[in-house]
Amino acid sequence: MKAKERMAIPRQQPQELGVAFRIKNFEEVTACFDEETAIREANRCLQCKKPTCRQGCPINNNIPEFIALLRDRKFEEGYWKIRETSSLPAVCSRVCPHEFQCEGACVRGKKGDAVAIGMLERFLADWMVTKGKNLMSSCALPKDKMVAIIGSGPAGMTAAFHLAHEGYPCTIFESLPAFGGMLSVGIPAYRLPRAIINAEFDALKNCGVQVENNVVIGKDLTLQQLKDEKGFDAVFVGVGAHKSRKLGLDNEDMKGVLHGVDYLRRVNLGENLNLGHNVVVVGGGNVAIDCARTALRTGSQNVFILYRRTKKEMPASMAEIHHLEEEGVTIEFLAAPVQLHGENGTLKRVECLRMELGECDASGRCRPVVVEGSNFMIEADAIIPAISQDVDHTADSGTEFEVTRWGTYIVDPETLQTSVPWIFSGGDSVLGPQTAAKAVYQGKVAAESIKRFLEGASLKEGREVRDLME
Ligand code: SF4
Predict the structure, then answer these.
(1) Any idea what DSSP says for residue 387?
(2) Per-residue pLDDT reduced to its tens digit, 280-304
(3) Is the CB of 197 under 6 A from ligand 1?
(4) Which residues does 311 contact at the CB level (< 8 Å), separation at least 6?
(5) Ligand 1 centre from 208 Cα, in Å?
(6) Ligand 1 mean position to 287 CA, how many Å?
């Protein structure tokens, strides 16, 4: 096929559940491409000599090669091509903000629509999972040094995957009853079905990785005890950033105030939480959007988002904003809460202020400035502040860790070793709230460092590591 013919193919669109049906349940909204649609989309790729898409991918997936294999119907080979760099393709293909990563860097996006790289990755991953072919058969013989992984999110899963395939027995300690970290308690099932997370865990268990749920490191066992009493030779801390940031307003503990990831965790762990008719969500990222769409699905009728900048500045992905608006959630731009009003300890109204955009920084992001005297009131049964998340430091209780002023762990950017030599860390606990792909990348880097540490080898020699903290 000539380049001109490839350029003439429009970007393929996936089928989606109808709005009236989907807002009553947590079924996955976006369907996978079928075979012919996937191949048609793959034919849009120009197989660039300098594939900029790869630079945009935090894991450096070999995108042109897996697309070439897909269009030749070599689905299995295409999948394993992705697995050379990514341990969680079925997850990343669903939850990564591709328009800011690989697709945002695709040359086809300069004059039209980028190649739907995420959907093509998903096609290969789902094809393998549905055929049960995603389990690696060749697992290494067990070695005599053990690794503890704290947290079962994407960073921990990836570290365990690579270490287990090197033969190091790994045990994942997870404080919650579910595994997957933010993937299972933060991201709603309509974006990431639990069967997908389970399939990724099957791949881990297939190589002997143990998972211990409901163990809170820092309370039930300390990191030091893991080393001194349980015999672990190294530890990877991938606890993520699960502590919701507060608005800092009076009455923020009154009934009707639920913070973003706390709210999502409760719903995702099975709690039946109907927040009432009117729900206000604060924030512009994917967590805010997940909260708003979850509130709709749990029975609230009038859900809207307060965001202090404009649509252009929203950090959420365009696809998520599109789905949100389709489902009837209104976004009140250039507005922020200033006071919570309640009666008898229960929220009744949220007082807000209008904002305008002021000075812009070097990246072009403009500072929201209050419009004095613009106060207005919103009736609300619940408010969900979803403005950001911080690291919960329970796991490192009793261990002398160096942390940044944002509370994230300080690590060597090349090795991800913390200030305690036998402890490594990566993912959101180092980067702050970030994408699953970045957590996967750091899980892989940490696994290589831990392997070298256990073998007494140089942690740095002969390595090229992307610094995601830049
Ligand atoms: Fe294909 Fe876009 Fe990557 Fe070029 S930049 S190889 S067109 S996906």
Answers:
(1) S
(2) 999 999 999 999 999 999 999 999 9
(3) no
(4) 321, 331, 333
(5) 37
(6) 29
List, as one string, the DSSP characters of 156-214.
HHHHHHHHHHTT--EEEE-SSSSSSTHHHHTS-TTTS-HHHHHHHHHHHHTTT-EEETT
Closest CA to 14 of 123, 128, 106: 123
Ligand 1 centre to CA of 54 (Å) is: 8
Supply the mean pLDDT for the chain. Answer: 94
Q: What's the pLDDT tens digit per position in 351-386?
A: 999 999 999 888 888 899 999 999 999 999 999 999
Compute, in angstroms, the gap from residue 42 CA to the centroid of ligand 1: 10
CA angle centred on 325, ends 320 and 331, rounded to 5°: 100
Q: Fold identical between 147-242+390-455 and 246-387?
A: yes
Which pLDDT does position 464 carry in this prediction?
A: 85
CA 128 → CA 61, 80, 98, 157, 194, distances in Å?
Answer: 18, 10, 21, 19, 16
Helix (H) or strand (E) holding 236: strand 234-237
Structure confidence at residue 11 (pLDDT) = 98
Considering only CA atoms, which residue is closest to atom 4 of ligand 1?
Answer: 48
Q: What is the CATH number of domain 3-130?
A: 1.10.1060.10
Assigned CATH topology for domain 246-387: FAD/NAD(P)-binding domain (3.50.50)
241, HSE (Cβ side, Cα atoms, 13 Å): 25
- Is 453 within 8 Å of 227 (Cβ atoms)? no
pLDDT at site 469? 67
38-72, pLDDT tens digit by residue? 999 999 999 999 999 999 999 999 999 999 999 99
Return the CATH fold of 147-242+390-455: FAD/NAD(P)-binding domain (3.50.50)
Q: Is 70 in the pocket of ligand 1 (CB under 6 A)?
A: no
Tell me the two tokens of residue 260. Answer: 């973003």
Q: What residue owns the CA closest to ligand 1's atom 2? A: 106
Q: Which stretches of the chain score pLDDT less than 50?
A: none
pLDDT given for residue 141 in this prediction: 78
pLDDT computed for residue 400 by the predictor: 80
Name the residue at shortest CA distance from atom 1 of ligand 1.
Answer: 45
Strand partners, 342: 347
Cβ atoms of 190 and 297 within 8 Å: the answer is yes
Q: What angle do CA 207, 209, 212 make, to 5 degrees?
A: 155
Give first-to-last CA distance, the chain, whole Å. 40
Which sequence spans correspond to the domains of the chain?
3-130, 147-242+390-455, 246-387
Burial of 137 by CB count in 10 Å (0-12 exposed, 13-18 middle, 19+ buried)? exposed
107 Cβ closer than 6 Å to some ligand 1 atom: yes
Measure CA 386 to chain center. 15
pTM of the model: 0.93
